[in-house]
Predict the 3D structure of the following.
Amino acid sequence: MKALISSLSENRLAQILLFSVYVLITSASLFLAEKSVVAFLLLLLSILILYFLNLKTVWKWIIGFVILGVLLPVSASQGPSYQSYMEVATLVGIYVAMALGLNIVVGLAGLLDLGFVAFFAVGAYTYGIFATPQAANFMPFGSYPLSGGSFWIFLLIGCFAAALFGILLGIPVLRVKGDYLAIVTLGFGEIIRIVFNNMDKPVNITNGSMGIASITPPSIFGIDLLYPNQFYYVVFGIVLFTIYVVRKLEYSKVGRAWKAVRENEIAAQAMGIPLVKTKLTAFAIGASFSGMMGVVFAAKQTFVDPTSFTLLESTTILVMVLLGGMGSVPGVILGAAVVTILNLQVLTELTNWMNQLSLSGVIAIPEALSPVKMQRFIFGALLIAFALYRSQGLLPAKNRKYNPEELKNKTEKSSILLLSKEKRQA
């Protein structure tokens, strides 16, 4: 068996063939079945399998794009559960982008943030206020609600508004770290939620605890985006953009500065890294992705209220980062997907199945141990199991490996170019 696995790990053609067969079988199963959560999850699992294949990164991106952009929506479109599948996939994308933003703050810069959902709320309310008649209560000009075409502009506005709040949060917490930083950010998240909850007087801006309803849906080329399968492609595009930006930042000068601050602030400052600028950049960029997804969330739900932005949401996003692996982009994506799918689909389906068995008299479950009440308990037990056996995360962060010979050649070429430049100037 070990010899077979070893030969498969080295044989690229065999890997491609087996992977192609797996994707075709799962796609066909989802296409032919009226409702098959297992087939849906197995097709999503193909993205994780693709990550471990011995292929070039470019080909992995192309294949992953085809699976998520074409095969998944087409295969799921034939059954009555199409919109529910797309709803789950859309929420996975929203949480992936938010977890990647938090990963910049926690995983790369080492700044423990327990109020990250506040930036999500800023983005959601930014669009919700102006996409409803609510803005007419305090805006002296303009007609409201704005049209659905403004959604695309508000993606940028929500991004910048959340980044601004990230900087405002970062300024007072520059002198604290560790547990005190966690307490301050937790307080910031609660303050934002309470402020939105009470901004209904003397001027009604957020409609208080009643929330903002009937938010104008986004539109493109005159088509209103109303269904989860339509929002899926919007979220899919934003997630691709987010992954690209985060990967570029991770290995840039800014990313290396974040990692240096995470490891040792004093040593980083001694090496000339500006702590204030580096930390504020982490807060601003991380918050911007959350604000962008807040706009998408408000447009998709067509309703926002303060109960959607509680401490539990911040904790859930932090769990995604920790579960996947702090500082690891693939790990955070996997962690966000696992937590979201567990909560929205796997545990929900499990509790529904157990309820049916209980109602039909197959098994007798006490009221205190009913599946609905035990869902959070099961989720917590699974997280404890993951923490015990995968303490570094499902996909721990890996440092980029460099070829010493290539670095030496580049250094020599740079020295030769510098000498020739100095000779020409002389």
Remarks:
- The chain has a mean pLDDT of 86.
- The CA atoms of residues 20 and 46 lie 10 Å apart.
- The two ends are 68 Å apart (CA to CA).
- Residues 1-80 form one domain.
